Amino acid sequence: MKKLLLSSIAFVFLLTSCGSKQKGELTGVQGKKWYPEKPYGMELIPRGSFIMGKSEEDQGKLLNAPTKTVTVRSFYMDDTEITNSEYRQFVEWVKDSIVRTKLAILADELGIGPEEGGIGDYAFKDADTTRASVYDKYMLDNYSGMGETGYEGRALSKDEDLVWDTSDYPDEYYTEIMDSIYLSEEESYNGQRTIDVKKLKYKYSWMDIEAAARASVKGNTSRKDFIRTEEVEIYPDTTVWIRDFSYSYNEPMHNDYFWHDAYSEYPVVGISWQQAKAFCNWRTKFKNDDNKSRGRQFVNQFRLPTEAEWEYAARGGIEGGTYPWGGPYVISDTGCFMANFKPQRGDYAADAALYTVEAKSYEPNDFNMYNMAGNVSEWTNSSYDPSAYDYVSTMNPNGGDQSNTRKVIRGGSWKDVAYFLQVSTRDFEYADSARSYIGFRTVQDYMGEEDSTQ
């Protein structure tokens, strides 16, 4: 009996060792080879150190940017500000998702499926559990009904295009849902009914890693305590074109700037810091949903740049430069202005632009970044503190205080004088504010070998 037991153990050992590629060596878990992929519309900003702060005279006498040598890691950055066209893609996605969710919920309540047509064509994809995977069935049995609406996590059907022409609505239930997303007749004029943009909300969750890491040393913490949920109205505030300027006729910009194709390649404005953060989350989700469908590994998150990253990218590798092109002048040797700003008192058009210009205007800096000075100021992820440079780290510095609602904006805009175009000039706006002269661009951390040629 003892011999039989030992023989069995030896046989099991042989089975477990036969065919092993490791041959008893510590080779690590073999995953897929990772190849860094440059995101569309972005440029790689190679890691490096630079002198952050004002190396020239502080004309504003703000004393909020003393010189400090810092180092930042490699990252990708949008080569232009986010445009109206790009932000409209976000808005259209949210609108589409909201309508499909409403249609699917009503179809579920009525018990109508795809086989019955009409609103049933937009029923949740998991309605037919005979075709669901084992995992899908398990999730439906164990987790369906948990959450605010009870429909969280259920797959929307995107096989059918949404119908927007009222004459082609498939049934009365579809009509009911579509009617609910438009402004009422009392709020419409000239026979036109428009989408109620206040209903275009994007909801997402994120984890406050920094708070969790600092709290973990105290113990007795749970992961769920640091998961934050945000719900943001994402449509730009077009009224900024009127509210930002008293006794000024800017109604054409209010009426047309965001939605008209004539302004598609212009930077989006009227976006608060919270809306910019929501866009970053959506962009990450949009990319990773596609990667998931292709069986590819997820990318890391898109986000707003830190103040240090923004200044490093704006300098374009020029040490001690006043502007992204170096400086110290804002006019080229051919007599042309180098950016879109207000060159003279009240003369907004002296630089051949009245308001904003297309995002790919003027010459890019040496990192191939367009309009890092002028056009629109840009949100950063950093909170504003006049003395931040005195205490932030010299490695990837960031003053990201969640309780501080003053957020750093950089670069100056079409309505600013040259001082605000300087790469070292700091300014701020409150996170819940939207302005006709503030936009944003996104960044993504570079993963892989620290090679600037990638």
From TrEMBL:
Domain Sulfatase-modifying factor enzyme-like intervals: 42-443
Ranges in coiled-coil conformation: none
Q: Per its UniProt entry, which superkingdom is the organism in?
A: Bacteria
Key words, A-Z = Lipoprotein
Is Transmembrane found in the keyword set? no
Give GO MF terms, alphabetically: formylglycine-generating oxidase activity
* Pfam families the UniProt entry points to: FGE-sulfatase
PANTHER family found in the cross-reference section: FORMYLGLYCINE-GENERATING ENZYME, SULFATASE MODIFYING FACTOR 1, 2
Any idea what this protein is called? Gliding motility-associated lipoprotein GldK
User: Where does this protein come from, organism-wise?
Assistant: Maribacter spongiicola
